[in-house]
Amino acid sequence: MMMDFAGKSLDLSAPHVMGIVNVTPDSFSDGGRFFSADKALEQARKLVADGASIIDIGGESTRPGSEPVGVEEEIRRVVPAIEAISAELDVVISIDTMKAEVMRAAVEAGASLINDVNALRGEGALQAAAELNVPICLMHMQGTPQTMQQQPHYDDVVNEVNTFLTERIAACEAAGISRSKIILDPGFGFGKTARHNLRLMKHLAVFTDSDLPVLVGVSRKSIIGATLNVSVEERLAGSLALASIAVWQGAKIIRSHDVRETVQAIRLCEHVMQVSDFD
Ligand SMILES: Nc1nc2[nH]c(SCCc3ccc(S(N)(=O)=O)cc3)nc2c(=O)[nH]1
Asked: To the nearest whole percent, how much of the chain has pLDDT over 90?
């Protein structure tokens, strides 16, 4: 199924890799004071060369316990990077933000996918997304990045996440956003214990069985660390295993730090899934 990203289209009947470019201090060795558009562009060049179809730009860390960032600062971080990447690379740029004003500035600068871990629940976010008329990824999060991992609790995590996403889709449609512009994401690591994450992965078909494409972000996350007891630097194999399990169940976008290896893994999945049974 083709999805249009402000003129660039992706065939989401096949899986794609979303490469990650963080323009946040905790992701730069120099303490982030001087993180720059050309460092972001350099990283984006590599990710595109490695096979990324989408580049996800984030100016505010949403990892558990992270500090919120003001809207002016977040815009100051992401806009130069988006402008530089958009000027040089023919790749879909997504903006990873919860703020309406950042969505507007980012799309103005060249982003054509809104990736909102808060599923447009922020002040003015629904309205902004409707006006900007670009595809939107709705992700489930319980609580906020500051609180979500304190005591995640569900009676039935798969059902509750599915119900939340269904409600957010309805809110989008009520705001005039067409279903054809919506991507769903269960939000691995956003207010979930390790078991909650494993259950969501085991039952991912609940989400991929819908007519909407599903995005999965498990790269180097605690679903791997908690299961294998390995550090962040030792999570590549686990990330590739889970990317394959997600694609096998129908996920169409895999958010990854390790694009080259992830492209190889999902390409193998595709070939196994598509091999003819006759000839
Ligand atoms: N659509 C979408 N966007 C995303 N943006 C991010 S940033 C990752 C923040 C983080 C880091 C680490 C853990 S943990 N404690 O599970 O290792 C949780 C969250 N992720 C995702 C994701 O999945 N989807």
From this structure: 95
Distance CA 129, CA 114 (A): 8
Ligand 1 center to residue 146 CA distance, Å? 13
Give me the domains of the chain, ranges plus CATH numbers: 2-274 (3.20.20.20)
| pLDDT in the model for residue 279 | 81
Residue 75: pLDDT over 70: yes
ipTM here: 0.99
- Among 212, 211, 201, which residue's Cα sits nearest to residue 249? 201
pTM here?
0.97
Q: Is 150 exposed, middle or buried (0-12, 13-18, 19+ CB in 10 A)?
A: exposed
Q: How far is CA 220 from CA 185, 192, 229, 266, in A?
A: 17, 15, 12, 17
| HSE toward the beta carbon, residue 102, CA cutoff 13 A | 29
Q: Are 71 and 93 in contact (CB under 8 A)?
A: no
Average pLDDT of the segment spanning 151-161: 98
User: What residue ranges line ligand 1, CB within 6 angstroms?
Assistant: 62-64, 96, 115, 117, 137, 139, 185, 187-190, 215, 217, 221-222, 255
Q: Give the distance (Å) from ligand 1 centre to CA of residue 188.
A: 6
**Residue 72: which H helix or E strand, with range?**
helix 71-88
Can you tell me the distance from the alpha carbon of 79 to that of 247, in angstroms, rounded to the nearest whole number?
32
Q: Which amino acid appears at position 105 of this protein?
A: A
Over residues 2-29, the pLDDT tens digits come to 999 999 999 999 999 999 999 987 654 4
